[in-house]
Automatic annotation (TrEMBL):
The gene is thiE. SUPFAM superfamilies: Thiamin phosphate synthase (SSF51391). This is Thiamine-phosphate synthase. NCBIfam families: PRK02615.1 (NF002727), thiE (TIGR00693). It comes from Trichocoleus desertorum GB2-A4. GO terms for molecular function: thiamine-phosphate diphosphorylase activity. Residues 151-327 form the Thiamine phosphate synthase/TenI domain. It is an enzyme of class 2 (transferase).
Length: 362
């Protein structure tokens, strides 16, 4: 590796052990991610990228670093955390290991500067490669599931909260927002944590209303913000690039602003007057027609949508709807969910057919 400062007899072994441990950690994390790229995604480019980074790290893993290893004397081997004992999804496995690689590379970047400046620079550049890999693996999963989701359940406080949400998920629901304006923070945290787990069990997206801190605390898929909540840019800075951010809109100006600010999806409404938005005038079906022509991100019609008016909403151009009472107060949430999904699927099929026949044949 060439000449390098060695420091005192105490500093050099500690430095070598830090480098050895983090080289191991980064390589192991990359191997776990590589296996999914290879066998789960069948992606040769992503698999090759992981393999190349592992091999580059292996070249830095010199015998002198391995020789400094002292596993029996390492106090860190006895430390663990309950969250490390289970994984709820492939996404979580990937997220945890990508974070592990990024943290290890950051350590290697800083301590590597002492070992040899070239190592520090190489690990810095590799860390940005891992960020890109993370975006390739994780962002599309949430975005793709959002694109496929046409029914959005927004919860309301009820004694049967968990049973109702799970019943809707059993009916095919894939997008849930936890909304409770009155509960104290301990109750909100407990409810959100349990709902997050239920949604993971059904491979559904879980969104928290308003509270970015709560979304982070329970590892939600994103947050939904009202017009009076924090700016999307601030929420993005706190949540990072991989979580979803939705914004409520009531008119074309709010829609344009939300899209310009980077909302992943928007709510369009309230289309009808609803106690959920007490005192707020209904936006009406005209706003739905406007959204059909101008929205460039997924949009969900919300506000009093139920089984009696769903066809009027769809006729105005909607393909996605968000509901509260229609499911949360239903006697049979599974059947109501299946009904909504069937009507949404039906309108998608009709419009896809109309688009096909409207195209000129070549």
């Amino acid at each position: 590796m060439g000449d390098r400062p060695t420091g005192s007899k105490l500093v050099q072994p500690a430095l070598y052990r830090i480098l050895d441990a983090n080289l191991d950690r980064a390589r192991e994390g990359l191997r776990i991610v590589e296996e999914w790229c290879r066998f789960g995604l069948n992606s040769a480019p992503l698999t090759d990228e992981c393999k190349q980074m592992r091999q580059e790290l292996a070249r830095w893993h010199a015998p002198e670093l391995r020789a400094a290893r002292d596993t029996p004397g390492d106090p860190g081997t006895e430390l663990t955390h309950p969250q490390e004992e289970q994984r709820s999804s492939i996404e979580q496995v990937l997220q945890v290991n990508l974070c592990r690689v990024e943290e290890a590379l950051r350590v290697l970047e800083e301590y590597g500067k002492i070992y040899t400046p070239e190592m520090g620079m190489a690990c810095k550049q590799m860390r940005y490669r891992v960020y890109t890999l993370e975006s390739s693996l994780l962002v599309p999963q949430r975005q793709q599931l959002l694109e496929r989701s046409h029914l959005y359940l927004v919860t309301s406080p009820t004694e049967n909260l968990f049973a109702t949400v799970e019943a809707a998920l059993q009916g095919g629901l894939s997008l849930v927002q936890y909304r409770d304006k009155t509960a104290d923070d301990n109750v909100r945290f407990s409810n959100a944590k349990k709902l997050r787990q239920i949604c993971q069990d059904y491979n559904a997206l879980f969104i928290v209303n308003d509270r970015v801190d709560l979304a982070l605390a329970v590892d939600a898929d994103g947050v939904h913000l009202g017009q009076q909540d924090m700016a999307i840019a601030t929420a993005r800075q706190l949540l990072g690039p991989h979580r979803l951010i939705g914004r409520s809109t009531t008119n074309p100006d709010e829609m344009r602003q939300a899209i310009q600010e980077g909302a992943d999806y928007i709510g369009v409404g309230p289309v009808y007057e609803t106690p959920t938005k007490a005192g707020k005038a209904a936006a009406g079906l005209e706003y739905v027609r406007y959204a059909k022509e101008h929205a460039t991100v997924p949009w969900f019609v919300i506000g009093g949508v139920d089984t009696n008016n769903i066809h009027d909403v769809l006729a105005a151009g909607a393909e996605r709807v968000a509901v509260v009472r229609a499911i949360m107060q239903a006697d049979q949430p599974t059947l109501i969910t299946q009904y909504f999904i069937s009507q949404l699927h039906r309108i998608q099929t009709i419009r896809a057919y109309e688009e096909r026949i409207a195209k000129p044949h070549v």
